[in-house]
Amino acid sequence: MQRSLVDLHIHSTASDGVLTPTEVVHLALKRGLSAIALTDHDTLAGVAEAQAAAGTRLEVIPGVEVNSEGDWGDLHFLGLYVDPENPFLNERLRAMQEARVGRAQRIVKKLAWLGMPLDWEEVRALAGGQSVGRPHIARALLNHGYISTTQEAFDRYIGREGPAYVPRLRLTPTEVIEAIHRAGGVAVLAHPAYSGVLNQVETFVSHGLEGLEVYYPDHSPEDTQALLALCQRHGLLATGGSDFHGPGYEEGAPVGSVYVPWECVQALRRKAGRL
Ligand code: AMP
Ligand code: FE
Ligand code: FE
Ligand code: ZN
């Protein structure tokens, strides 16, 4: 396996990651990476810190991961090379963050009914950044000894089928793609092998989709080959990354552990008009 110089899917404490943007950059430098994209859920708040920490040693591509809900279920999109200052995208993200707060409070209320009272301020503090999410609630449950792993929180209480689950505000795929485009970004379907929409890629292309996340921890070599073929057929960019959330975190893999060809960054730059 060639050593990867690129990781285009990374989370930090700006959303549900465990490491600060600065710590993520130090890790990426230690692993010898040349380019990373910070792709926190519904927020660009970590990008400036990561870029400042990186200086000229490493390119930090401004990114965001936004989930959508529609006829195709729960699809995740990455916006890469978005302008972090774009008012339209930021307004969309702000609305989702606001909705996340009300939704997390409802989850906390349901957990109290189930005999697991949590202090809202504690959850808020655990979130720290702007995007409060279920992983923060899972960590609070763990701190109180209600569960023994954060995974247990999802399996028993706050997963999709769980008794304390509350859905959150989601845009449609078209709205997500539009917001990414208006911010000058490239719209990529994240971890597509599990999206269930690979037979409808053409529809998404007509809605403005420009790339598929071909290289991903859980993708088998066959998945990767099939996705590369789809990219070629539909003129889509191939991207990839670890979906790193933190050391010991169940989701994702270590920074730089997924091989992503350097050409992906060049193609992205061209598409985003950065070359
Ligand atoms: P939220 O955005 O608040 O709905 O939380 C979604 C995040 O929770 C995802 O980005 C994952 O990091 C994590 N997550 C979602 N489902 C699970 C699960 N079944 N097991 C563990 N973590 C999960
Ligand atoms: Fe996450
Ligand atoms: Fe995702
Ligand atoms: Zn992710």
Q: In a nutshell, what does this entry contain?
A:
The chain is of the alpha/beta class. It has helices at residues 21-30, 47-54, 87-113, 120-127, 134-143, 150-158, 173-182, 201-206, 221-234, 263-271; strands at 6-10, 35-41, 59-70, 73-80, 186-189, 211-215, 237-240. Helix 4 packs across helix 5 (134-143) and helix 5 (134-143) crosses helix 6.
Give an account of the 3D structure:
The longest helix has 27 residues, at 87-113. The chain has helices at 21-30, 47-54, 87-113, 120-127, 134-143, 150-158, 173-182, 201-206, 221-234, 263-271; strands spanning 6-10, 35-41, 59-70, 73-80, 186-189, 211-215, 237-240. The chain contains ten helices and seven strands. The model has no long low-confidence stretch (mean pLDDT 95). The two termini are 28 Å apart. It has a seven-stranded mixed sheet. With 275 residues, the protein is α/β, with parallel strands linked by helices. The structure holds adenosine monophosphate, fe (iii) ion (2 copies) and zinc ion. One fe (iii) ion is lined by residues 11, 16, 41, 245. One fe (iii) ion is lined by residues 65, 76, 190-191.
